[in-house]
User: What shape does this take?
Amino acid sequence: LTSSRTSQGLYVIHIAAEMAPVAKVGGLGDVVSGLGKALQRKQHLVEVILPKYDCMQYDRIQSLKALDVVVQSYFDGQLFKNKVWSGIIEGLPVYFIEPLHPAKFFWRGQFYGEHDDFKRFSYFSRAALEFLLQAGKKPDIIHCHDWQTAFVAPLYWDIYTPKGLNSARIAFTCHNFEYQGTTPTSELTSCGLDVHQLNRPDRMQDNLSQHLVNSVKGGIVFSNIVTTVSPTYAQEVRTPEGGRGLHITLNAHSRKFFGILNGIDNEAWDPARDAFLRFQYNANDLHGKAENKDALRKQLKLSSIDANMPLVGCITRLVPQKGVHLIRHAIYRTLELGGQFLLLGSSPVPNIEREFEGIASNFRNHPHIRMILKYDEILSHSIYAASDMFIVPSLFEPCGLTQMIAMRYGSIPIARKTGGLNDSVFDVDDDMVPLQFRNGFTFLTPDEKGVNSALDRAISYYKKNPEWWQHLVQKAMNVDFSWDSSASQYEDLYENSVSRARAANLAQ
Ligand code: ADP
Assistant: This one.
């Protein structure tokens, strides 16, 4: 192991399929930029490698330019050229790999959902390592994410360490164990991995179907550090129900497996400076919050006769994981309890989309319900600011960001006790939790009764005790969900792993 540290900081390279705000589908994109920026503030040298998608938000990339190098990388028995670009995203240096491959892997108008996703991302994982080797980079940590770049871990040890790219420890973060990147074993050879070596129960063979290989499993087995995005989810995925077949592998590798709660980007989500809001506000002066509520009600033609009528918000992808039937129930229940409900949701699942379009058209001109079925970043800011409560009834939730953003905007979460929700929302009536940490309403069973048990209490407290509610809002707004503390946990894991490797090297 050779050291490449130029200062006291570590040299960390993230290889990922997403990075907010230029290429974001979900939480992964937020983590790559949020964690990256926090580590950079802590004096580490952080770089990111992304595919050069045609559909990125190019206006958010500064100083984009093609490098004067062509990286040749192996795939399907041949060498293909790759153009490499550099740019800056939110202050972080980023390299973009553009494969000059006839299949135009990242020229598809969308990030995921292509028939050859396994090929596209195994190609990218290999090309990213090839670039590091040819550029002579000597990172301390290579951090890969989710199934799309989990290939980096076996590729690094099997192919790149022998070639001399050998300075790094490998970290792998799985952001959602629902997506494991499984494929027929033969496909693994395309990127140069040795199927005979890897198609074994203790390596990359899928635990549920022996004729498949599993990329996330490869990430777990071949990385030095494995993390997921909250402590509770890290426990859940070690059980048969939560692990979707990978619990066996995670339990076998439990000593290197950790759950670290994601943070949120406190600059992007700040009600005191949010340019998308008509009225800025902070925990010491909540007038602006009330004004935002009034303004949004008028904008969306909801009744604003009673300023004190509670407004429940929900912003989500409408997919089964998010408890769509419980969201539907919460809409009707809120109405029964004398509240208003505002849903902003988009669905990639056609029958869910149709169902919600049906409900939305029933409520088209309703004075207390509005359902906006699309993805709208600007509107999302207004809803966080305007709502009094925010419902997140997920069936499972690796971390979840919306409950944390809602709290930062003084909207009190009503959340199911699962995954990262269980690590960030603590019930106001839970005597087991110290008073200063109680910040919302929770329920355990994912059914209508469960939702009612939290929603009914929230609305009742809101109506009966406005002063108490205001105090709760201020408390929630002051909870620190910034990346700084989560980034310190990653920093500790990186540093321990690097020093163990150095000590082992010295001993040799
Ligand atoms: P997931 O990654 O599973 O979708 P998270 O809670 O981790 O869920 O992250 C969701 C992010 O996407 C949040 O920043 C949320 O504000 C945003 N979001 C979700 N749905 C929408 C939508 N329809 N319009 C705007 N933003 C949305």
Observations:
- The first helix runs from residue 27 to 41.
